[in-house]
Specification:
By secondary structure, this protein is mostly helical. The chain is about 80% helix and about 0% strand.
């Protein structure tokens, strides 16, 4: 360790960190190229070749040219994922539409017992819940 000073260790770690960061950015750009629906097949092929043949320049130019729309696609995907997750939770919990059919029928039966609705209204509401 005597022949490798602390400053050299610092520079080595810094360059290693920057290399890993660049790899993450490269993979992010490549996935964004394939995720973009507004870009045609030839456009995707061109960007991909540019990023593979001249990786540092290709990634830099891509981020400069399409960085804003790249962020918008990330936000859109996050919103779609969140909406799908919330929909899954609603379906799994059985609360889609404000409550399950059993809860709705129990509420209707309580209203009928209290005299708030007639037998005819109860039957119509029951048929609607069960359909």
């Amino acid at each position: 360790m005597d022949d490798y000073p602390a400053l050299n260790l610092f520079w080595t770690m810094l360059w290693f960190f920057l290399w890993i960061m660049w790899l993450f950015l490269l993979f992010k750009v490549i996935t964004d190229i394939f995720r973009d629906h507004s870009l045609g097949g030839w456009g995707k092929a061109g960007w991909l070749i540019f990023c593979i043949l001249l990786p540092f320049l290709g990634v830099l130019v891509y981020v400069i040219a399409r960085g804003k729309s790249m962020g918008q696609r990330d936000v859109k995907q996050a919103r779609e994922s969140e909406a799908a997750f919330q929909d899954y939770i609603r379906k799994t919990a059985g609360t889609q539409g404000g409550g399950s059919a059993t809860d709705e029928l129990a509420r209707l039966a309580d209203l009928k017992e209290k005299g708030a609705i007639t037998d005819e209204e109860f039957e119509k509401a029951k048929a609607k819940v069960l359909s």
